[in-house]
From TrEMBL:
Belongs to the enoyl-CoA hydratase/isomerase family. This is Enoyl-CoA hydratase/isomerase family protein. Pfam families: ECH_1. InterPro entries: ClpP/crotonase-like_dom_sf (IPR029045), Enoyl-CoA_hydra/iso (IPR001753), Enoyl-CoA_hydra_C (IPR014748), Enoyl-CoA_Hydratase/Isomerase (IPR051683). It comes from the Bacteria. The lineage of its organism: Bacteria, Pseudomonadati, Pseudomonadota, Alphaproteobacteria, Acetobacterales.
Length: 259
């Protein structure tokens, strides 16, 4: 990895209730280096610590979203490699972020980044994009969390198709199998992301964040029923539910405080 690459870590931007994390190594299809994992984990912690935030967008520069983890990064940056968590640990951490997440897919999604995007709550892609999982072609046995996520999100047959054939899928097929939650023309991508982010930002945060956690647990077959019931009880006793009911009666938009 060149010195220039080390100066292109993922950035975090905060504007109002929305945070945006952006990958910047476009000349290498935004491959993720060990140092990027360290920075991304820091950004995830910053987002979780900011109780004013309601939504996070994961985006990237250049024509491709990401080529996934750079396997050669361990040899090229030994210092960062020694400190960086494993790629799958970073992906699992992204899935557990408190606020709803949107992946802005402006181009190709390859390798480990296919799983990173799959952990987002919403994936908005563009016509002409593609994705593929080359693990079988490279001799890589994928990590358990990614295999489990593919099956829970896309179904067993689609997971087998993607992992066992390394087939490259286009945008329309990605929408059909549920990998994309929305497909738009390239020129409409930012408007679609903004609309989705704005929708999520005005929802009741206690309810939305609690249900996100429960739904992800259900997807992995590991629902903590007691914790889910406790969150539901807290919502029932919250100021937000009173505001939501009042807004419904008064035919106005609610303004939630998250308490």
């Amino acid at each position: 990895m060149t010195e220039t690459d080390r100066l292109d870590p993922p950035t975090l931007e905060i504007e109002g209730r929305r945070a945006t994390i952006r990958l910047h190594r476009s000349r290498h299809r935004n491959r993720i280096e060990p140092g990027d994992i360290i920075r991304l984990m820091e950004h995830f912690d910053t987002v979780d610590a900011n109780r004013d935030l309601r939504v996070l967008v994961l985006a990237a520069s250049g024509p491709a979203f990401s080529a996934g983890f750079h396997l050669g990064g361990f040899a090229e940056d030994r210092e960062a490699a020694a400190r960086a968590p494993a790629f799958d640990v970073m992906v699992d951490r992204f899935e557990k972020i408190r606020v709803p997440t949107i992946c802005r897919l402006q181009g190709g999604v390859y390798g480990g980044s296919t799983d990173l995007a799959l952990t987002a709550d919403f994936r908005i892609g563009v016509t002409g994009m593609e994705m593929f999982m080359p693990a079988g072609r490279l001799g890589v046995h994928y990590y358990p969390g990614g295999l489990r996520r593919y099956v829970s999100r896309l179904g067993l047959n689609n997971a087998k198709r993607l992992f066992m054939t390394a087939e490259k899928l286009g945008a329309e097929e990605l929408l059909r199998i549920g990998y994309l939650t929305q497909l738009v023309a390239p020129g409409a991508l930012d408007a679609a992301v903004d609309k989705q982010a704005d929708t999520l930002a005005v929802m009741a945060p206690m309810a939305i964040q609690g249900m996100k956690q429960a739904l992800n647990e259900i997807g992995h077959g590991a629902l903590d029923v007691e914790a889910c019931e406790a969150r539901a009880k807290a919502c029932k006793e919250s100021e937000d539910i009173q505001e939501g009911l009042a807004a419904f009666r008064e035919k106005r938009a609610p303004v939630f405080a998250g308490r």
